[in-house]
Amino acid sequence: MPSSTLVLRRITVLSGGVGGARFIQGLLHGLRTGVVPGASAATEVTVVANTADDWWIHGLKVCPDLDTVMYTLGDGIDVERGWGRRDETWSAKTELEAYGVEPTWFGLGDRDIATHLVRTQMLEAGFTLSQVTEALCRRWQPGVRLLPMTDDRVETHVAIADADSPSGRRVVHFQEYWVRLRASVPAEAVVVVGQDAAVPAPGVLDAITDADLVVLPPSNPVVSVGTILGVPGVRDAVRSTPAPVVGLSPIVGGSHVHGMAAQMLTSIGVEVGAGAVGAHYGARSSGGVLDAWLVDERDAEQVPALEAAGLRAAAVPLMMDGPDATAAMAAAAVSLAAGDTA
Ligand code: GDP
Ligand code: CA
After folding, report:
1. What molecular function does GO assign, one term (predicted)?
2. How far apart are the CA of 147 and the centre of ligand 1, in A?
3. Tens digits of per-residue pLDDT, 111-120?
4. What does the pLDDT read at residue 1?
5. Which ligand lies nearest the alpha carbon of 258?
6. Do 63 and 75 form a contact (C-beta atoms < 8 A)?
């Protein structure tokens, strides 16, 4: 185990879907292979996952980010797509289309549907989303404690221009913006319905407060990490935890690599840049949530400004091109958080 001034018994990660899941997979690989300073295979990882992408469709409760983390870490993910089940078939989707059931643009695979059936039945029987998630994880054994950010219904909606509407605007569910519109039209605003009334799920605040390290993975800063931090109490817990808080930039060389972080950042008036996202999260010493911010080596010129803003900052390769590369990112994040020179 590489030496470190940090001893990591517990790491808590605030995660979205694909970006977060890939990072956590690399982190776990790094823990197993001993490349993460101060940590080992015995280090416990808790993942607080975004649930603001969730929605009800065809009578089923679908939780894309929870499922992406669960399937990725449980080795059930379709690696090419990055979401959904491997070896998926689409008979139910085809049959629904034959009935003319809308929306036809949201594909639920046959294997995936089994997960949503279990979840929906348990919710309707009165179990909470936390309890359902724990039950689903008994099958998938993700190797982390997976917690939804809240058991309450919180849904991201996106305002887009619509010439046919009297207000000139229309609000669509996040899934319609992302899946049907492919984030191809500008997002004029992001509205997180239900957020102010939401309560953190059991264990979420303790996981942040009792951690030895809190990590913001390279997830979408607005509709993944932003919505988790927006659950009342979560931002305060991150601001006040005794653990160091480190983040990894989801923007590399001015691009979001995969996904839609650029559209979402633009909608909240944040420049699409690694330094700008670090500044958006802000240093805990000046009202923000971070102690340290890791950017890609292509963005190394942004390090001095981040340091001037009160953040510990460094530049390393941040492309998640496989478990070893991603484990190295996790190791660099830990070194930076600990203040060890890399
Ligand atoms: P989602 O919920 O499926 O959109 O996943 P997340 O919110 O967890 O992460 C999506 C974000 O991950 C994207 O918007 C990208 O900015 C970021 N991302 C994806 N691949 C990479 C990568 O290889 N390196 C880095 N640094 N960021 C990435
Ligand atoms: Ca998501």
Report:
1. magnesium ion binding
2. 20
3. 999 999 999 9
4. 52
5. 1
6. no
Is residue 182 exposed (0-12), middle (13-18) or buried (19+ Cβ within 10 Å)?
Answer: exposed
Q: Give me the domains of the chain, ranges plus CATH numbers.
A: 3-52+201-337 (3.40.50.10680), 55-148 (1.10.8.240), 155-193 (no CATH)
Q: What is the pLDDT of residues 51-109, one digit of tens each?
A: 999 999 999 999 999 999 999 999 999 999 999 999 999 999 999 999 999 999 998 99
| Cα R_g (the chain), whole angstroms | 19
* CB-proximal residues (5 Å) to ion ligand 2: 16-17, 53, 65
Alpha helices in 210-338 (DSSP H): 225-229, 234-240, 261-267, 274-281, 303-308, 323-338
User: Full-prediction pTM beyond 0.85?
Assistant: yes
Q: Using the atom order of ligand 1, give the atom closest to the CA of residue 83.
A: 3
Q: How many residues does the chain have?
A: 342
Atom of ligand 1 nearest to the CA of 251: 16
> From the CA of 220, how far away is ligand 2's center (Å)?
8
Residue 289 corresponds to which amino acid?
V
